[in-house]
Design brief:
The complex is a heterodimer.
Chain A lengths: L2 H24 L7 H9 L7 H35 L11 H14 L5 E2 L2 E2 H21 L7 H25 L4 H9 L7 H20 L1 H7 L3 H6 L4 H23 L5 H13 L3 H25 L8 H19 L6
Antiparallel strand pairs in A: 1-2
Chain B lengths: L1 E10 L2 E11 L4 E5 L6 H8 L7 E6 L2 E2 L5 H7 E4 L11 H6 L14 H14 L14 H14 L4 E5 L7 H17 L3 E5 L3 H7 L2 E6 L2 E6 L1 H4 L2 H8 L3 E5 L6 E5 L15 E5 L6 H8 L4 E8 L3 H8 L3 E5 L10 H10 L2 E4 L9 H5 L8 E5 L13 H11 L3 E4 L2 H12 L2
Parallel strand pairs in B: 3-8, 3-9, 6-7, 7-8, 13-14, 13-16, 14-15, 16-17, 17-18
Antiparallel strand pairs in B: 1-2, 1-4, 4-5, 9-10, 11-12
Helix pairs in contact in B: 4-5
The chains are: A mainly alpha, B alpha/beta.
């Protein structure tokens, strides 16, 4: 992949990001003209109009969160696909969504939805559930001091099944507010406030910085762990750091948005096809694509059938699934 | 220099390497050979610190490998693995540049020196021509050269290779070994190669290490290690060791043994073969597979038919190299012929030196004699018609039959003697 081509791809994706950002603010159950949108964003001394309240209090945090969630899932997906060297892996494969989902279901069904300090307990439960699950998976798959990736993958899938079974059992036997659980499981950004961004943002940065730090090593791990070791990469250390970081950002975004599917699987894949396997370009590009994709999906989720909101996970799956099938058909031979 | 001290390694309870000691000096070109499961690849993995020894240590320039970071080790020692298939769409140039990883900063900033070295190793390995191609579109030999280039970009003192030629065509095999030889001679890189190909190892390497059951069975130059006895013991294979005419090094030839899967005792049938000068190489193999006793003579020592018969363990009446066969030499031969059920004469050329072999046959009027005459007797008679006249007389007799196809001849023997 030539540098010139990458440069144009990035330039183009930034323009697309900016346009998507504006469109997402303008379009919704109440359409807002572009002039008023820009005014509400940049005039801080003016009077609060109806439009500026919608933009600033409702749409802006939601659009920003869409970007954070979409980009975080795409980054984590690219990292897991790279470490495991398998394109069929998404950030949920290691049990994150099952853990978060089960914990969130427990919180909803047992009515533990109070507010702790300024945190809502459902995200808190989901976050803790996700982290505990990955710790369990990590320890199951550990052999001596190493984490063989196939063990990690299979332990994640198995643990996920068990947790999903527990969650289904709770849903069948529980009586409380099933719609809320279902909505959470499908993934939704409804009711986002600035509070959610304050929850997600620290974890986002704590997770992304180590990923950037080891981004070159991830390229070399693609050649196989033994090869990477002989090329000077401390494979086990890098793997541990990357797994921890990717888990952290995934758990953080899942806790506020529920498990939104397909972004972590399809976006890294799409980015790889466009810009090649070098993670120094692939990860930033996948992040932008994931952000754009979720902003657009959420825009559709809240404006297709107003005043009804479609869970955004349904939109991402409907858009992402066929695209993925297309990729598989087209790219049957060769690498990924 | 590389020193392996009391190395032991086991997968689970399966001991692969057992108290192995080896000292490798700077600038050696060493082949590690041995049968499957003898611990060759495990040894390479231990040497490259991909796996750690259960017991014992490995020292590179007096430093324990365990005390070196992956990065430091990568600057001294590089590895060409057995499986070089890569499923990612990296270009050849990018992949070779990854060899510079240990020298680069966190974000892989490419320096002028990195570029120089990568260009140099691409020239060396003749990979510059496809530097922008994807690795996935290269042939096996090309990909192997790219992987070697990547290993060289690490500027190693020691290069480890795990069967780099096992899946390559013969021309690529030679190419890779020639390159390694060059690197060893001109760039002073110590080369340690695991190889299944005993003859390539013999031809190119100045030291061979024969592993068996995780221990060194034999170590030394090719002449010392590649002996019939060692190979019989370690590989359980019957071979004959010849000399490679070009390199002068030992050349291992496997003896085909069709009886291995068709076990029966040697037939009580003796055949005396008259041959010489390499005229009967393929006849000898065919006869050997009939599972009969073969005797032969008279032959000059060192003759290529003599060599092959000896390596099969046949009884041969022999005389000194280049000597003429005299009456008295025929005594032992007569004894062999007396025991033979059949005499077979190959289509060897006759000169004054070996005409006695043909002449003696006139004495046997009741013994079955087969003459193989693919080539006309006139064309191989260097005795001014003497051989031809004997041949003509023989051919008129009832006990003599002549064939121009060796397979027909052997079929006839089988039919007449119920073999």
């Amino acid at each position: 992949m030539g540098n010139k081509k990458s440069y144009f791809i990035f330039l183009f994706s930034f323009i697309a990001l900016f346009i998507t950002f504006l469109l997402s603010l303008m379009i919704g159950s109440t359409p807002i003209p572009i002039r008023s949108t820009i005014d509400s964003l940049f005039s801080f001394d003016g009077e609060l109009t109806r439009f500026s309240v919608i933009i600033r209090q409702i749409r802006l945090p939601r659009v920003i969160l869409s970007f954070l969630v979409g980009s975080a899932l795409a980054i984590a997906g690219a990292v897991f696909q790279g470490i495991i060297r398998n394109p069929m892996v998404d950030p949920y494969i290691v049990g994150i969504s099952a853990g978060a989902g089960t914990a969130a279901t427990i919180a909803i069904i047992f009515n533990m939805t109070w507010t702790l300090l300024y945190f809502n307990t459902i995200p808190l439960f989901a976050f803790v559930g996700a982290i505990i699950t990955v710790i369990i998976v990590y320890n199951i798959s550990k052999v001596g001091n190493k984490i063989p990736v196939m063990n990690f993958l299979l332990a994640g899938v198995a643990t996920g099944f068990i947790l999903d079974a527990i969650r289904s059992f709770l849903m069948v036997t529980g009586t409380n507010d099933m719609q809320q659980v279902v909505f959470w499981l499908m993934g939704s950004l409804a009711g986002t406030s600035w509070q959610d961004i304050r929850i997600v943002l620290p974890y986002y940065f704590i997770g992304v910085i180590p990923i950037l730090f080891y981004i070159k090593d991830l390229n070399i791990i693609l050649l196989g762990e033994d090869n990477a070791q002989t090329l000077g990469v401390e494979v086990e250390k890098v793997k541990k750091v990357l797994i921890t970081s990717a888990t952290l950002i995934t758990a953080a975004v899942v806790s506020v948005s529920g498990s939104i599917g397909f972004i972590g699987l399809v976006m890294p894949h799409m980015a790889r096809m466009l810009i090649g396997p070098d993670h120094r370009k692939l990860i930033p590009f996948a992040a932008i694509l994931g952000g754009i994709f979720l902003m657009l999906s959420d825009m559709l989720a809240r404006s297709l059938m107003p005043p009804l909101e479609i869970p955004v996970g349904i939109i991402t799956a409907i858009a992402g699934g066929p695209y993925f099938i297309y990729l598989l058909r087209k790219n049957k031979s060769g690498g990924w | 220099m590389l020193e392996i001290k009391d190395l032991s390694f086991a997968y689970k309870d399966d001991k692969i390497i057992n108290d192995l000691n080896l000292y490798i000096e700077l600038n050696e070109f060493i082949a590690i050979i041995g049968p499957n499961g003898s611990g060759k690849s495990t040894l390479i993995k231990n040497l490259s610190n991909i796996i750690k020894p259960d017991k014992g240590s490995i020292y590179l320039n007096y430093k324990n490998l365990n005390d070196l970071s992956a990065q430091d080790l990568a600057k001294k020692l590089s590895v060409v693995p057995q499986d070089t298939k890569i499923d990612f769409d990296f270009t050849v140039y990018d992949l070779i540049m990854m060899g510079r990883n240990a020298y680069q900063n966190r974000w892989g900033k490419i320096t002028e020196k990195d570029r120089e070295i990568v260009t140099e190793v691409m020239n060396l390995t003749d990979t510059l021509q496809f530097k922008d191609r994807s690795l996935m579109n290269l042939s096996g030999g090309e990909r192997q050269r790219v992987i070697i280039a990547r290993a060289l970009a690490q500027e190693p003192e020691v290069l480890l290779l795990d069967e780099p030629t096992s899946s390559l065509d013969i021309n690529y095999q030679g190419e890779i070994f020639d390159l390694l030889s060059y690197l060893n001679n001109k760039k002073n890189i110590t080369i340690i190669i695991v190889s299944h190909d005993l003859n390539l190892a013999s031809q190119y390497c100045n030291k061979l290490v024969l592993l068996n059951e995780g221990q060194i069975y034999s170590i030394g130059n090719a002449e010392e290690v590649l002996t019939k006895e060692n190979i019989k013991e370690v590989y359980d294979a019957e071979v004959t060791i010849k000399e490679n005419m070009i390199s002068g090094r030992p050349y291992v030839v496997l003896i085909p043994n069709k009886h291995k899967f068709n076990k029966k005792d040697k037939a009580d049938f003796n055949l005396h073969l008259i041959c010489g000068g390499g005229s009967a190489q393929n006849i000898i193999n065919k006869l050997y597979n009939l599972n009969i006793n073969i005797t032969s003579g008279v032959l000059n020592q060192g003759d290529s038919d003599w060599q092959l018969l000896k390596s099969y363990g046949c009884e041969v009446s022999e005389i000194e190299p280049f000597a003429y066969i005299k009456e008295e030499d025929l005594d032992y031969n007569k004894k062999l012929i007396r025991n033979a059920n059949v005499i077979l004469v190959a289509d060897l050329p006759f000169g004054h030196g070996n005409i006695a072999n043909l002449k003696q046959l006139l004495e046997y009027k009741n013994k079955k004699i087969y003459l193989y005459a693919k080539r006309n007797i006139e064309d191989r008679d260097y005795t001014n018609g003497k051989a031809k006249s004997i041949w003509s007389e023989l051919i008129t007799r009832d006990n003599v039959s002549s064939f121009t196809q060796i397979d027909n001849l052997i079929e006839d023997i089988k039919r007449n003697f119920n073999l």
